[in-house]
Amino acid sequence: MVKKTFTTETQRHRDFFTKFKNAFLIKLLLSSLCLCVSVVTFALTSKAQIAIKGETVWTMASEPITNGVVLVNNGKIEAVGTASQIKIPANYKIILAKVVTPGLIDARTVVGLNGYMNQPHDQMALDQSSPMQPELRAIDSYNPQERLIEWVREFGVTTIHTGHQPGALVSGQTMIAKTVGKTADAATIVQTAMIAVTIGEGAIVSGGRAPGTRAKQAAMLRAELIKASEAVRKQDEDKKPDAKPPVEMRAEMMQKVIRREIPLLVTAHRAQDIMTVLRIAKEFNVRIVLDGAAEAFMVIDEIKASGFPVIIHPTMYRAGGELENLSMTTAGKLKAAGILVALQSGYEGYVPKTRVVLFEAGLAAANGLSMRDALATITIDAAKILNLDSRIGSLVKGKDADLAMYDGDPFEYTTHCTGTIINGQVVSETIR
Amino acid sequence: MKKHLIYIGLLLLCFGSASAQEKPTAFINARIIPIVGQPIEQGILLIQNGRISAVGDARTVRLAADVVTIDAQGKTIMPGLVDSHSHIGDGAGADGSNPIQPDIRLLDSVNVRSSSIQRAQSGGITTVNVMPGSGHLNSGQTLYLKLRDNANVIDDLLIIDKNGSYAGGIKFANGTNALRTGSSNFPGTRSKSAALVREQFTKAQDYREKIRKAGTDKSKLPPRDLAMEALVEALDGKRVVHFHTHRHDDIMTVLRLQKEFGFKVVLQHVSEAWKVADEIAKARVPASIILIDSPGGKLETLDVSYTNGAALEKAGALVGFHTDDYITDSRHFLRSAGLAVRAGMSREKALYGMTMANAIMLDMQTRVGSFETGKDADFIILSGDPFSVYTHVLETWIEGKKVFDRSDPKDLLIATGGYGAGSNREVHIDCFDGDLGGQE
C-alpha cells in the first residue's frame, strides 16, 4: 500500500485537478479504451498479476515492440513480447497504454533529503560543519513521504539515486531508493551507493577556512585517500581474524573507496576540475562516477580514456557561474564518443525545487541524442552506472516490474504520464 | 588613428545602406499562425520597412515584381514571442534602503551586452518586460524592450511612443519576498505590506490633486517628487502596475488595491490562480503565469499548478506567460505553452498567451503580438509545431531585421550553450564582421 499524505491545500489542489480534468479524462480514457485503469485502486498487492498492453513498448533490451505486452507477476516481469507471442492469462488485470517504458531512473538527485518547502527543517542534503564527512548516511535523512518524490513518481520516475548534495568537498553518502515506500528502510534498495565529492567553485569555503582553493581541495582529498590506503595496506598485511580494529566511521568509508567497493561520485564542472578528478583517480586507482561535468565536452577524449561514466547535468540547467559554458548537446557528444552517460535532475536551491528527468531527457533528444539513447540516459544506462542493471532499467523477464506509461511520445511537452508501476504495484494513476 | 578612420568609414557605409527604401520581402509556403485569425497552410507573410504589409496565401496576397521571396516550406511562422516578466540584462532596481522605491528606473541599470539578451533572442522573444526584483513592495520602474540586434546603448532597445517617452511599467510585490523581520522600515506582515502600499498611493492621489489645482500656475506646483510622479502615472493608467503575487489571499489583496486606486494591473506569477480564477476573471484583471517543473522551492509556491492556464482560460480571464528569466531560461519559453496545454489549456489560447495577451498586458497590442497589417514585422520561424519539444527556433526577426539565425554558428552557440556562450557580447560595429583588433 502506498501511504498518501498531503497537506490540506495540496489535497484541494488535487481535487481541483481531478474535477477540471474530468471531461478531458473521459474522452481520453474512452478513446484509448483505458476505462479499466480508472477503476483500479491502490489495493493491489505485490502479488498482483497485471498485463500491460502498449502500442509501443520500449524494452530498452531490444528494438521497441509494436503492440507489445508486458506480464507482471509477484512484483517481477514475467514475460515481454508482442501481443501475438504472449497469451494473457484470464485472471490478469489488463492496463492499456499508448507507450510503455521501463520505470524511469533519476541518476542523481537530492529529493527525499531536500523537501519542497525549502525551509531549514526540510533541507537535509548538506551539513556544512566540516568539509570531510563521508560517514553521513543518506538514509538517516531520507523522507519517503516527501511531496517531491510523489511528484516525480507521477511522471514515471520509479528509482532515484539521491543523497548528499554538491557543496562540500566530501558531503556524505548517496543511496538508491524506489519512489514508493512508507519508510526509508522499505524504500531503499542500496543504502550506501557512492560518496559525494565536489571539486571546484561549488565547494570552496570562504573566511579563511579550508578548502579555500582548488589545490587545497585536491590536497585534502588526496590526504584522506592516502590515509585510507595506508590503513587498507595495514589491514591486508595484518590478517589476524581476531584483531579487528575499532570501527571508525569516517575512515571506514574511504577504505571502502580504496578497496573499490564503492565509487566516488565527483561533481566537477570546469574542464580543469574534471582533469583533477582523473589525476587523483589514477593515483589511487579508485572508481569514479563523474557528476555535473558542464565542460565535459572539452575533455571528451580524456574522459573516454579514463573509462568513467558521466551523470551529466540536467539539459535545461541554468548556465551561470562555473556552469556558464554548459551545453544542451553534451549528452549527445558523450554518447557519440562511446562514454556511458546518464541524466539527472540535479540539485536546485530555489524554484523549481526539483527538475524531472523525463523533461531533461526530452531536451537532450531535441539536441543530439536519438529517442532511444535519450530514453537510455534515464533507464538502462542510468541502471548500469548505478550497478543495478541486472535488476532495473529495462523490461526483461525476471527484473523488477517498474514501468511508466504515456499517452504519446514520452518526451513531448503535451504528452501525459498515465500511470506508474513499481514492484508490480500501480502506484500512480494521476494524469500528468 | 588609422583605425578610427576605418571606423568612421564603416559607420558611413552602414548609415548609407540603412537609409534606402527596402524592397518588400515575402516568406512563402510556410504554415503561418497569425494569432488573430486561423492558421494558414502554405501561407505568405509579406513585410516591408520593418512592418507587416500583408498576411494570407497565394489567393489573397499579391506579390509585387520586385519582391524578395524566401521559401519557408515545412516551417512554421508566428509572431515574435512577448515575455511579460523577465530579468535579462543583469539589471538591479531598488536597493535595501526602503521597501518602496518608485523613483528607481531599470533604465539606468541594464547591460545591453549581457548574454542573457542574446539567449532571449534565440528563444524567439522579441518584446520583453524587464523588471527589477521582488524583494521590495515596490522595486522601481520596469522597461519594455525590443531585443534588436547589436545594441550598443540601452536607447537602441527602447520602445518610444508618439510623445517621445520610452515604454515601461512599475513593479510591485506582495507576499513573503518583501517581508523582512527585524528591519525598521520593511514590512513584517502582509497587512503592513498592504498598508505601506496604500499609504503611498494615497499620497500620490494628493500629489496629483495639487498638480491639478495648480493648473497653469507653476508657482503653485508641488516640488518635484520622482517617486510620486511614477505613482501618478500608475494612477492615471499610463504606467501598468506589474504585481508579483503568488498565494490566493495575496492575489485578492492586489484585486482589492486595484479596486481602491483604479490602476491598470497585471497579476504576475499568480501561483495559486487556480484557486481564485473566477475572482480574477470577474475583476477583469489579466494574469501572467509561469510554468515551472515542480511545486515548492518557497512557501508561496507550494501549490503552484500546471493547471493555472487552463483554469484561468476556463474562467474567462486574459492569460499570458512569462519566463521570469533566470527562473526559467528564455531559450525554453515556448515550453511554457506546451506544459500549459499538457494541463488542459487550449492550443489557441496558449499561443495567444505567448504573444497577443502579453502585448495587451504591456499596452503594446497595436504594435506587436499578432500578424496584422501595419504592425511591427516581429516574427519567428520555427522548424515545426510550436508545442513540440523537438521544434527549434530557426530565426528571430524584429522590425524586419533578422536578429537570430540558428544556421549561424555564433548564434547556434547561444541557442544550445557551449564554451563562451555565457560571455557578454563583444563590441560590434553594425554590418561589419571583420576583426578590427586592439581595444575597442
Task: Characterize the main sheet of chain B.
Answer: 8 strands, mixed
The CATH class label of the largest domain in chain B is: Alpha Beta
Element string of chain A (H = helix, E = strand): HHEEEEEHEEHEEHHEHEHEHEHHHEEE
Approximately what portion of the residues of chain B adopt beta-strand conformation? 15-25%
The oligomeric state of the chains shown is heterodimer
CATH topology of the largest domain in chain A: TIM Barrel
What name goes with the CATH superfamily of the largest domain in chain A?
Metal-dependent hydrolases
Give structural attributes:
heterodimer, A: 432 residues, alpha/beta, Urease, subunit C, domain 1, TIM Barrel, 2 domains, nine-stranded mixed beta sheet, seven-stranded mixed beta sheet, 29% helix, globular, disordered N terminus, B: 440 residues, eight-stranded mixed beta sheet, six-stranded mixed beta sheet, 11 helices, disordered C terminus
Give an account of the 3D structure:
The complex is a heterodimer of chains A (432) and B (440). Chain A has 2 domains: 8-102 and 396-428, Roll (Urease, subunit C, domain 1); 105-385, Alpha-Beta Barrel (TIM Barrel), CATH 3.20.20. Chain A is built from 12 helices and 16 strands. Chain A has helices at 8-31, 35-39, 147-153, 184-187, 214-237, 249-258, 271-284, 300-306, 330-336, 357-365, 371-377, 380-385, and strands at 49-57, 65-73, 76-82, 93-102, 104-109, 157-163, 170-178, 188-190, 195-198, 264-268, 288-292, 310-312, 341-343, 403-406, 417-422, 425-428. Helix content of chain A is 29%, strand content 22%. Chain B has 440 residues and is an alpha/beta fold. Chain B has 2 domains: 2-79 and 375-416, Urease, subunit C, domain 1 (Roll); 81-361, TIM Barrel, CATH 3.20.20. In chain B, strand 16 (393-398) and strand 17 (401-405) form a beta hairpin. At the A-B interface, helix 1, helix 3 and helix 10 of A face helix 7 and helix 8 of B.
